[in-house]
């Protein structure tokens, strides 16, 4: 039998200049000889091979003279993965059988995943072999029956192993993370500035938003370049002791971004995934000591102190497997921190605190010095119990602001956050006291207004819990870059009950 | 606030002639004014509106002169849903918020779904509002924590309600279904011919393959047209008493096909989904009495008699909610039925039985008369205990073959099943007795060879359990339409252990 006796036929690659995020796409003529000989049909997964490189792509078929039967048109993600020139010869065939899916099927039916299973899954995900259906099945199955401690350790290790791993020429490398769920809680730029100003090494890599209207990387990007390559990052850390980079360019735990896109669409974010996501990034970034801020509140991600303690315990257990020293802080998660929700609006809050403006949000300052204090103590830069005072002094003296400017300039230059084209108030329905603020709905509102894709978009809060407010006084301002998004957010603000509840 | 004071801008529709199965796709220029004003980014879900019609589509963006900034290119699914002409004016905006996803999130976290939840989910699925991520999350969540009886009833009702529902001018309308998992078990055409020949009304609608290499509709399509519209189906049933149609054209339980595509990719097929799928189709098709064939065997879909009894009980409980009389048969599921696996190869087995050929597969005949006997008894055409004898007589007398030809001709004409371009034997590795046949791996093999997309493709078995076989004697023949698929199947047959196990 010699089904492969002749070399498989090649096609000429055409760059379609089609944007589809991470998704590689191939388009072939329905009457293409390769479609016939391979038995390919629309929406099947194909392997596109160019020399030593290959990429798995989603196939569509076309009946049009835009393409000739001997061509295959490729999306940008496919084009870049193959690194080819216009007209290059490529081969297209059935994608290989996705063996790691068997583990997910067993997991759906209640069996636990081994280290080998998770390693195979994460490798296939990073290699682009997982369709949205398979990715969603993995994340849903591990949300429905949550990952246990062993699986979480295995997943963390698999996520570290599949990416780069940084090492720093320092015995202590500090890091911090907030488990999120609290809009506007943008302490990271402040903590890095304070820690670095006190001589600690804090090479911070942050992610973009998962289900929130802004991640630290989104916020920082409105203040300075964050897409640093590793050489730039090393230079910034060597000279300034700290940096504020987006982790994505570093390929640290690269599976995380792929999981995050699907979690964002489903709006689920499970404990095991969260732990693996947080710890894999910290460990891959070379941290030896990390402070985890866990805001607790009825509409925060962690809703009770019991849940917070459980999460802290699981985080510490998992971290211990990797020799990472961890300290968890439980903070107030009953309302947003600062006034801005959205990349640029949060950046403005950060700047006000750094400059020690009299009008700076006190709550953001308080939290930043609390977290920074823990980092200073854990990293050995402050005595036990003295961290918060030292952190506050570093803000008050201007040392943190000076260090922040140096870091931003080393990253490519401090810049002004953008301002939105459309600003619209949402008014109090009647006079009274603010008795409830729904963090989840505020996040939703900021996202509908365009955050984080539009950095200037979001929500600018005018009230806090307990404030007295008059009828028709603005409770918040919506900021949007487009009319469509403004209308979309306004529609939601009208429909959503108790976004901000004013007692009578 | 007048974000919508001016009418939203329109775009000119371009037919891309792009095939992507059910998936509607829209392509717009990255610099298109609507992308800017609506804040649209690649891979977002958009609503495309043309007059009274609208369709939700997956958006890609392009930087190329193939499209101008005032145009939107649409895939075939989008084009047909909108029913427009080239250059028609359409609007594109953000897809509405998918509210039913909240139910799926609750379900992932262990809460049960109400009738309202399931109704909303199924309506959104059928309206094309579910992405692959959302569809996969629903099916995975209801596999990880299986649907309970109440949820199964609600899902069944939701799946019926969202589609057409047939009614027949007859007090008794019989139907049958095999829960699958047994390659080649193609009794349906035989049962319909026998039932109709004995005066019963059996307007059979069948589905295409889910995870198997052929569904009854795939097999029947090699013998006669099965894409019947409702008028044709009624005419066939009025004159002949029975028909063998593909259910898809009838929009009976239209959510099923959308679920099936994702279940096929994941290769999961859960009990609750199975019950809702089977019963919603039977009830929507107007059946009053149905026989369910449940093959039991270690590599069949149902692996033990306990599991079969549980399934039968849940099927009967659910059917009772809808006034459907059910009889479940437990049959031998230890090995494939007949010799062919794949649409055309199974059709040839069916023809041999109908013609009462001396070489016809005895096991297929035995099963067909067993199931047909139960149908005859349940439908009142045979006394209790006399069904099987009457069914066998109907085959032996030529009455079934006569009726089958009449039905096929009424559907548009009896035709010859196609034959494959490539046929390749797989030989016995040594002499001995056949001690094990793996149904699942055989199905996989037939699918890799191209079944059911290539109707002629599949597996033609040459041995049964217990047969003595000599070294290098063919155990089966692979049939494929393309070299690529043949190579793919051969590769699997070499790698797969114990596809057919020959004892020594």
Automatic annotation (TrEMBL), chains A, B:
Domain Pyrimidine nucleoside phosphorylase C-terminal residue range list: 433-500
Signal peptide span: none
Keyword Cytoplasm: no
Major enzyme class: transferase
GO molecular function: 1,4-alpha-oligoglucan phosphorylase activity; thymidine phosphorylase activity
Coiled coil regions in record: none
GO biological process terms held by the UniProt record: pyrimidine nucleobase metabolic process; pyrimidine nucleoside metabolic process
Record keywords: Glycosyltransferase, Transferase
InterPro entries linked: Glycosyl_Trfase_fam3, Glycosyl_Trfase_fam3_N_dom, Glycosyl_Trfase_fam3_N_dom_sf, Nuc_phospho_transferase, PYNP-like_C_sf, PYNP_C, Pyrmidine_PPase_CS, Thym_Pase_Put
Enzyme Commission number: 2.4.2.4
Catalytic activity reported: thymidine + phosphate = 2-deoxy-alpha-D-ribose 1-phosphate + thymine
GO CC terms of this entry: cytosol
PANTHER family to which the protein is assigned, alphabetical: THYMIDINE PHOSPHORYLASE
HAMAP family per the UniProt record, alphabetical: Thymid_phosp_2
Similarity field: Belongs to the thymidine/pyrimidine-nucleoside phosphorylase family. Type 2 subfamily.
Protein name: Putative thymidine phosphorylase
Species classification: Bacteria, Pseudomonadati, Pseudomonadota, Betaproteobacteria, Burkholderiales
């Amino acid at each position: 039998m010699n089904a492969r006796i002749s070399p498989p036929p090649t096609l000429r690659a055409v760059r379609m200049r089609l944007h589809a995020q991470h998704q590689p796409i191939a388009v072939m003529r329905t009457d293409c000889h390769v479609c016939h000989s391979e038995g390919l049909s629309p929406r099947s997964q194909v392997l596109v091979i160019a020399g030593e490189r290959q990429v798995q792509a989603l196939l569509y078929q076309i009946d049009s003279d835009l393409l000739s039967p001997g061509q295959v048109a490729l999306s940008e993600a496919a084009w870049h993965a193959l690194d080819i020139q216009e007209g290059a010869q490529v081969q297209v065939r059935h994608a290989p059988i996705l063996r790691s899916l068997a583990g997910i099927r067993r997991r759906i039916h209640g069996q636990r995943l081994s280290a080998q299973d998770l390693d195979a899954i994460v490798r296939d995900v990073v290699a682009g072999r997982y369709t949205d259906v398979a990715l969603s099945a993995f994340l849903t199955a591990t949300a429905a029956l949550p990952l246990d401690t062993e699986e979480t350790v295995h997943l963390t290790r698999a996520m570290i192993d599949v990416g780069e791993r940084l090492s720093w020429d320092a015995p202590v490398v500090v890091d911090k993370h907030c488990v999120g769920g609290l809009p506007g809680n943008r302490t990271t730029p402040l903590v890095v500035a304070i820690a670095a100003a006190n001589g600690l090494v804090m090479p911070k890599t942050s992610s973009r938003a998962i289900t929130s209207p802004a991640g630290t990387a989104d916020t920082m990007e409105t203040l300075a370049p964050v897409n640093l390559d590793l050489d730039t990052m090393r230079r910034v850390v060597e000279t300034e002791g700290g940096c504020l980079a987006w982790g994505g360019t570093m390929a640290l735990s690269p599976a995380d971004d792929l999981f995050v896109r699907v979690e964002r669409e489903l709006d689920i974010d499970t404990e095991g995934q969260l732990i693996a996501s947080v710890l894999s990034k910290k460990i891959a970034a070379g941290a030896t000591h990390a402070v985890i801020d866990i805001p607790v509140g009825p509409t925060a991600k962690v809703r009770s102190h019991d849940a917070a303690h459980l999460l802290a315990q699981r985080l510490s257990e998992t971290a211990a497997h990797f020799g990472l020293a961890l300290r968890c802080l439980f903070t107030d998660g009953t309302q947003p921190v600062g006034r801005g929700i959205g990349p640029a609006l949060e950046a403005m809050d950060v700047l006000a605190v750094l400059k020690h403006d009299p009008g700076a949000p006190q709550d953001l300052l308080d939290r930043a010095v609390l977290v920074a204090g823990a980092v200073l103590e854990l990293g050995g830069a402050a005595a036990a119990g003295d961290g918060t005072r030292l952190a506050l002094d570093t803000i008050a003296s201007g040392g943190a602001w000076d260090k922040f400017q140096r870091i931003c300039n080393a990253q490519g230059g401090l810049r002004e956050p953008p301002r939105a084209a459309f600003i619209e108030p949402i008014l109090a329905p009647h006079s009274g006291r603010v008795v409830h603020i729904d963090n989840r709905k505020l996040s939703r509102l900021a996202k509908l207004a365009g955050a984080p894709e539009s950095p200037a978009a979001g929500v600018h809060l005018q009230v806090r819990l307990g404030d007295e407010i008059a009828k028709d006084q603005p409770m918040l301002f919506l900021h949007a870059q487009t009319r469509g998004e403004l209308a979309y957010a306004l529609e939601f603000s009208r429909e959503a009950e108790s976004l901000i509840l004013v007692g009578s």
